[in-house]
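so the lab meeting is tmrw and i was supposed to have these ready like two days ago... anyway. pasting both below. for each one the top line is the aa sequence and the line under it is the structure tokens. i havent really looked at them closely yet so no promises
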Amino acid sequence: MTEFTKRKLSDDPYEACAVFDVNNDGISDIVSGAYWYEGPDYALRHPICDVEAIGEYHDDFSDYPMDVDGDGWMDLITGSWFTETLRWRRNPGRKDEEWETIDIDRCGNIETIRFYDIDGCGVPEIFPNTPNEPQAFYKLLRDAEGKGTGEFLKVVIGEAPSGHGMGFVDINGDGRMDIVLSHGWLEQPEDPYQTPWMFHAEWSLGSASVPVLGHDVNGDGLIDLIVGQAHDYGLHWYEQRQSEEGTRSWIRHTIDDSASQFHDLWLVDLDLDGELELVTGKRYRAHNDGDPGAHDPIGLYYYRVNGGRFDKFVIDYGPAGEASGTGIYFWVQDLTGNGYPDIVAPGKDGLYLFENNGPAKE
């Protein structure tokens, strides 16, 4: 079992975070909401800008580092459901200066955002999950020296509303990353800018997590899906099967039905044994008090895949204020330098750091 040391960094109820070197000192920092926390001890925090409170949410449903304007300082990509706008915050390079927030596109309600280098350019493209709009991605335009220009190209790859849930999975094994949505998948063509991508309606995943993960769970050579229910009970994997004629079908298996609001998922090797673990937990009050299980205790967990058995281990569990969930966008990265990936968990329950101490000594 992997052991963690838990630290609460803040009571602020922001639901997204990221880890990157904010001040170019060579040390990773933590960013969440209106503040960044200076590494290596994360005790000192600095303001970024005001982040609007909207009801019991904040206008920040994703945080991701990207040098948008090519000035050598990592900026921040964000967006939210309520303002329907994809944005970036410009890192001024000085601790005492507010970060300017700049609109990229009014693209519709953003559930959250994920990032993938779909064209192999070396810089990830931006994929907002916009349930009420067709799937699109945004490419940062760069100059002749490869530096960001602050401008983006929007590419609409879907035709129908995307639905809740999104992931990057090579479904058909052709070496090109496809886009998984709640009711099917968009097949990437040889040229990702050739639109629309062909849609295959092969499943109904419900209020699916962002991301939906692809992984060969049972070792049969076929990619399977790992899906959390973001606004209901349940964590599942969908086994891919193929007939002799090559027709795909999917069988749903339960991983864990004891908790609800599995909104964000990671696959990461926590104990450095060469095998990936599934890391996830409850997003506390995802729809405030409107989801099934909203008032249940919250928790953070990892699961050993174990060929589809998914052995569960509890990292944290208990009432909000004492325990942590995962928020809508948590982060996994080694912050202590011991080689083991740590977990940064934001949410309406506060911002927590779980330092990974490695496998427990027997």
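ok protien two:
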Amino acid sequence: MADELVHYEVRRGVATITLDSPHNRNALSARLRRELTSCLRTAIDDDAVRVVVLTHTGPVFCSGMDLKEAAGADAERQGVNEFPAILERLWTSPKPVVAKLAGPARAGGVGLVAACDIAVAADTATFAFSEVRIGVVPAVISVTVLPRLLPRAAHELFLTGETFAADRAAAIGLINSAVPADRLDAEVDRYTGMLALGAPGALAATKRMLQQPRPAELGPAFADMLELSARHFGGPEGQEGIAAFVGKRKPSWVPAD
């Protein structure tokens, strides 16, 4: 529909979800949150989708919560209760999610970036945790942001609200890559192409493994990882991958050219 705030398209196994509310800098309005939630659900439930890309139209990726809606509103209208579900859906998606930023991200928008597995930005993009400057706390987004950031950088940037550039965002772990704007599409294609080579079940299991807390004792952790490894070596994906390697062919899950 022409008046959608979030667009959805699938091409060769890549689902592209596009925030399209440039009039308010792609702010997380109630309507945009609903449409984004629906698109994420569709992508995750579609077996044909291998990778999800979250991107935007207009000069700004996402400016955070829609403050016009939040004025005088209760917690539910502000999205305090709803927004965590979006971040969790991105974080726990069994399909890898790539954030593609041609422009700035602020506050909740940075939370979206951090919830994705991989984030690529134009080197002109900027970032800021601007919450403290309007008297609020970056509490909800901290759940996805803090695991990504170096601790010293987290203290500095959360407390000062300072705007920082894409190269610093890459240096502190918030994004994976900052490239010239004319190379942004190619860099995202490079990542999605690599991700599409992974087996769906193996990618989902690897994501779950990466999200587990680090164990206090190594013995039980090695036992759990040995069981996980054996299960996938002996499973249908593992056996297909081994057969494809031996036969010098692509495994069945790799999209056709």
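from a quick look at the 2nd one: The beta strands are 6-11, 14-19, 51-56, 97-101, 105-106, 118-122, 126-128, 164-165, 177-179. The mean pLDDT is 92. will dig more after coffe
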